[in-house]
Amino acid sequence: MIDFTDEQKMAQRMLRTWAEKELVPLVPAMERGDVLPYDAMRHLIRSFGIDEMARATFAKATPGGDTNAGGERGFFGGDPALSAIVAIELSRVCPGFALAFGASLGLAGGAILAKGTAAQKKRFALPILTGEKIGAWAMTEPGAGSDAFRSMRTIARRSGDGYILNGQKTFITNAPFADVLVIYAKLAEPGQSENERPIHAFIVEKGAPGLSLSKPMEKMGMHSSPTGEIFLSDVCVAKSALLGETETLPARDRAREVFHGERTGMVPMCFGVIDRCLELSVAYAKERQTWGKQIGEYQLVQEKLARMYMHRENVRNLLFKQLEKAHKKVTISAAEASASKLYCARVATECALEAVQIFGGNGYMREFTVEMMARDAKLFQIGGGTDEIQITAIARQLLSE
Amino acid sequence: MKILVTAKRVPDPEQKVKFKGNTLDQSGVNWQLNQFDEYAVESALRLTENASSGNARNGEVIVVSLGPKDVQQQLRSTLAMGADRAILVDASDENLDSEIVARTVQKLVEQERPDLVLLGKLAADSEANDVGQRLAGYLGWPQATFACSIEVTDGGKALLVGREVDAGVETKKVTLPAVVTVDLRIVAPQAVKNGVTAATHAYADGPRYASLKGIMAAKKKTIADSSLAALGVAATVRAKVASVDAPPARKAGVKVASVEELVQKLHNEAKVI
Question: Can you name the CATH fold of A155-250?
Fold first, then answer.
């Protein structure tokens, strides 16, 4: 596909209207941390019937029957283009809000929908999709970022039928206010070396004894998205908390899939940032005059606009290639996902910084939006695997072929 | 209740107007649904659903428009909001006037036999504000214009229509079938009461967003094509636009050196003191 269908374009128009009418007025307060993003998230979910859609899909699934019913289809009716449109439109206005929304419904909700049992989907994923509960997805630890699997210290020990969790997670989106947390931990078996320990995901609910959640951390950008730490101190969970309720499939591969999703999921966010920065920059280049000429008439400004346009077109092409592959159920290789994320993240930061430059003094002021975009875009080069890790992943695949 | 709603596409009011001589240059215009028509669609949906019971439908909403093929986009968005079907009468905007539009809707009313015709009080581009009134005259039906509230009464045989007038809110009772044109406050949370939805129900302020499910469902709804000829409406334009001109550009001001000079200029030149 090289463009959205008529229906998808209609959804895009509706989302843009919603974002301009409902979200734009909230952005300054959300960015200051005075207002949390969750009420607006619920408003979005209700306005577009995302809750109704999820409930209808779950109602069709027979209890204890087909575990795939109420599966991925619960999320925007299983249309990856719709998820991309939501990410684009939210990121155009407030990337932090898009992140909080995506971490709850996409990462936490998505992980449970993809790998949970029918009972887990109904109990944990459905309330996340309806906005009743907020989800967080926790992999990163203080000593385990890009090397998340190898250095993971969070441990699950068998206890009777269930498990006891100990450890610490950090930089977790939504953690301070999450109701449902998907937490990755290594299962400690006697006589195994640390590297052999299989990684599993556990669903932990807010209020579990031994679980504590930090206050929001102070960040460079993405201020509308609360980020926090998770501390697990002898948190006892039942077997039913083990995602998928089986130890036979180690979660290492499943988590890789989510990483994959995290990488491809950033492409529409980058597109949203670039699209908005270009739109704002073109308008400003036509409006702002120096020495009696619109600044857009100067070639130094034109060069910036042309480069931003070129990057936007490239990101758009990568996005549609990714959507076409998802539509045809063709897998994207690790190198492809990494290369795409690496390019999009770098040019999103470049475009946002160039937008600040075009806006000059105004660009440095919070009021003109591009300042927020520049700080927010930087996260794309760090979260979901740093640029450097993406480069390593690409090289690894190239050299092993 | 069966309701016919009119919908017109208008240029995005936020977009800068371009001129071509004494006419508007409509190339590159972003078309959108006239906001008052969107309010009419919202009101029609509120009248034909039970919002206390999962928005179960208990009526039919048919949206009609006159215009080129592209108007399908705006009609499709009303179907996505929840309208049941649409009719598009092929016409070009330059060859229409209020009389032709009202006569066309009259023919469609005679075909569809609705209980109520809902219209926006005016179109945001021409602001003619006379299709609703003409239509009621041609049909010989009662009319209530600029509605800020609608309440179904007499067991569904009549409507109480609130209108904001200088002295307050005037309430008119119209027997169905009738023609009602709506003003912006008709989309307030409790402006429409249909006797089925609980009277205490409060809608979100404003017209609804098309849900993702609604957008998918709209794909399968029908937009029937029609034409002035098929409906037997004479296409002679009688109200002609003489010219459309941009407001004159504001002249530059002058700087005054002293308060005395200011007072003197206000008195002698501006003649305001």
Answer: Butyryl-CoA Dehydrogenase, subunit A; domain 2 (2.40.110)
CATH class of A6-134: mainly alpha
Give, rounded to a whole angstrom, the gap between the first and last alpha carbons of chain B.
61
Enter the pTM of the model. Answer: 0.88
Tell the CATH topology of A253-400.
Butyryl-CoA Dehydrogenase, subunit A; domain 3 (1.20.140)
Q: How far apart are the first and last CA of chain A?
A: 29
Q: Which long-range contacts (CB under 8 A, 24 or more apart) does A245-248 make?
A: A245/A117, A245/A120, A247/A187, A247/A198, A247/A200
What ipTM describes this predicted complex?
0.79
Q: What is the C-alpha separation between A399 and B229, in angstroms, rounded?
A: 71
Domain that holds residue B113: 2-268
Closest partner CB to B212 (pick from A13, A17, A76):
A76
| Per-residue pLDDT reduced to its tens digit, B216-260 | 899 999 999 999 999 999 989 998 888 888 888 888 888 999 999
Most A CBs within 10 A among B49, B212, B219, B223, hence the mutation to make, goes to: B212
Instruction: Give the number of other CB atoms < 10 A from CB of residue A221.
Output: 20
Return the CATH number at B53.
3.40.50.620
Taking an 8 Å cut-off on Cβ atoms, the answer to whether A47 and B204 are in contact is yes
